[in-house]
Amino acid sequence: MNSFRAMRVEKQDDGSFGRRVIERSTDELPEGELLIDVRYSSLNYKDALSASGAPGVTRSYPHTPGIDVAGVVLESESTAFRAGDEVIAIGFDLGMDTDGGFGQCVRIPSSWALPLPDGLSLRESMILGTAGFTAALCISKLESFGMCPSDGPILVTGATGGVGSVAVQLLGLNGYEIHAATGKPEQTDFLKALGADQTLAREDLLQNAHRPLQREMWGGVVDTVGGDMMMNAIKGLKYGKSLAACGLVHSPSFSGTVLPFILRHVNLLGIDSVELPIEEKAEVWGKLASTWRINDLESLATDLTLNTLSDAIDRILQGRMVGRGVLDLQAD
Fold this sequence. Notes:
It is built from eight helices and 15 strands.
């Protein structure tokens, strides 16, 4: 394969950013040991930021976003992989300043790739993608700090989004009571179908935000939104429990006091899926393919093609996406 289709984001003369699907040559791709025929990718909030020129995500344009890749190795200069291997790649610089999965081919360093784990198809791996991987990483880290089902309800913020919806399913799979918070009240049935025991309105989590402490409620929190909603959830953690922070859709900033930390012994845990060592990524993917395998992944999926991708990017930026957008690079 020398010619392939890809979304290209370009900076216009007036400073705005435009998107179009073009034909490219593999000769234009950056250096790397692996050339991959991309079968599936997925749409994440970070992809939408890159595709709209948001500061701090992608520095150089024109660019092809897509921080997730699942495909088949076409060419390999690495002894770890050979042509025909099915692989997945997420994180590192993929889709940020290195052309990513919104194209039918990528060329990447072999150290960014993992063999597709037994138990997952290429499509299933991208229904999960970075969002699902991050959800699993949040839960894994919370459990390493002692979270268990007997602790009481676990709060998931931004529960209809990519990370939140997978977190709800994974927590249900592992026997937790789940309270799912969302700004989309019309999606209550969707969240209940995923396994949420109770749903909360976004406004409920912002009540009495001026107080230094809230009533102890949560045995743990998966927070995907950041901002004051995150801080208010910290104030409501039970003694010694933890919040895993992985998102900033609401805001990257928050205001609060040290009182929850020094009076209730709680923890704020940072979650990063980008630079996480590849060995640790392999361990989490192994869980998602086996003991943490979600059997009804298709319930999360919205099918996308290169031709419908731009509209979906606008929807996720407007907060109107539910579940996971799965990009089929072979579809018209």
